[in-house]
């Protein structure tokens, strides 16, 4: 367990610079030999304290076996680091120094202290790491998904495709999402520290300061919302700002107060495709709301399934999620909304967004996710939750793609009278 | 814990390993927060001008920070440092308590459930018996409900403290930038602009 913990916290750089750390260890050993008595007195006390804590199981952190965190698109990429535990290279004794005798004579306390000292890092920004840090701070994968849904909304709008507006809307949405995610992480540092899924985030690890994170958020948010307002249209800008507000000031605090957070979160997820549509058309049409409704409903099988396997972490962290406090509601809502997706798909042709083929071609995937949701509802076990969650990951892109291919081609007014049977492409 | 003061250091290697240096090196503890060192048992090198962050604490999962106290620390910086230290200690205490209580109550729940079923704590292979996730879910719900007010008040106070700390950091950063720009130096010279 100790080795595992150390493997996780040791930076890859340290491994790469094994020779340098090897030297430092050597000098540490020399240091410990010279000041052995002094080190023991102080370090030994701290070590003994730790040993006491470890041995009394009541004070142990975790009683049961650790659960594998469910991989998700919402995960930080660094979670993969957790699984690749690197062993610290074995120390080779240097000829000349009486290291073997030191090793034997070196008490556990000093060795533990030395290993602990390795894990301490300077709170300093490493500029070469910044791009990676910013990517993790802004939850780049989630941001990419948000921009994709906004792009889908833009593409589904029944207007000629304008690449410039499309680009500005995408960039603006990307920046807004970065802002929202950064502020979310800024608010949640102590909670993220205590959950397996999130404990490698940049602010938790101290790679940047809170002030730096807030500055980054402002540096993304202000240009992002401005770009949306001035470069696209004020409605889209307003929606972008609203979404940032909803995510940071409503959803994030609500996570610890009430299960209503899931519904707020679903609205937050629904707004980007609406933004994409309004960026194209400039108005809030029923079609926009339909796309938003797709995302809203999809959110429930997605999130409820994910949270089902994280119940212990949520409970310990103080998060009020349906999966913990109202398990039957959790399953019911997931099922309800999965089935609802079928109904929403049928609305596509009704609202002139898609052709009639859309509800037909999307029926298989909608039925499949509903079936998995039903299994989840009926059995309520980890396996089914995981299956439902992974299905939701491919279901949404597939659904949007199908909607795009079945998009209703609108006949321009002047051609309608001439050749109603040959609709021209709207794109 | 007394060490003798050492001479000039290679700044590059100082970042890699804090105590990589010579024997008989000093770490003047007066310059670091003593209560913090007692908790962590680690002391950074004397010449280091940065704060240091450690591995997650075993009890609270929060990473302890050892704050560097610069010479001629301004009152503003001192307020910031004290606030950060105090927030860290307060948070640490909350989470230690939280995690400990959670583990303890979880064990009790498992024990009571097993005994109500007439099962022993360990099965025939000597492994600890675990309950199904549905049985555990009862406990998780209960734990959340029981601690709701405590969580809510921690949340409120955390948001306030976090916000105040960030504001103070901004003020300190602006103040230091202003002083550097107007050519006033501190003494040992702090880095310009943000020190993370």
Automatic annotation (TrEMBL), chain A:
InterPro entries associated with the record: Protohaem_IX_farnesylTrfase, Protohaem_IX_farnesylTrfase_mt, UbiA_prenyltransferase, UbiA_prenylTrfase_CS, UbiA_sf
Chief location of this protein within or outside the cell: mitochondrion
Pfam short name (any one): UbiA
Membrane topology summary: Multi-pass membrane protein
Superkingdom per UniProt: Eukaryota
One GO CC annotation: mitochondrial membrane
Keywords noted in UniProt: Heme biosynthesis, Membrane, Mitochondrion, Transferase, Transit peptide, Transmembrane, Transmembrane helix
EC number of this enzyme: 2.5.1.-
Recorded catalytic activity of this chain's protein: heme b + (2E,6E)-farnesyl diphosphate + H2O = Fe(II)-heme o + diphosphate
HAMAP family, sorted: CyoE_CtaB
Family listed: Belongs to the ubiA prenyltransferase family.
Function: Converts protoheme IX and farnesyl diphosphate to heme O.
Entries under PANTHER family matching the protein: PROTOHEME IX FARNESYLTRANSFERASE, MITOCHONDRIAL
Name of the protein in question: Protoheme IX farnesyltransferase, mitochondrial
Organism lineage: Eukaryota, Metazoa, Chordata, Craniata, Vertebrata
Automatic annotation (TrEMBL), chain B:
GO biological process entries: intrinsic apoptotic signaling pathway
GO cellular component: mitochondrial inner membrane
InterPro entries the record matches: COA8
Cellular localization per UniProt: Mitochondrion inner membrane
Region feature (Disordered): 1-26, 106-128
Membrane topology: Peripheral membrane protein
Ranges of Basic and acidic residues composition bias in the record: 1-13, 119-128
Principal place of residence: mitochondrion
Keyword Disulfide bond (UniProt): no
The UniProt record lists the keyword RNA-binding: no
Keywords assigned: Membrane, Mitochondrion, Mitochondrion inner membrane, Transit peptide
Family designation: Belongs to the COA8 family.
UniProt protein name: Cytochrome c oxidase assembly factor 8
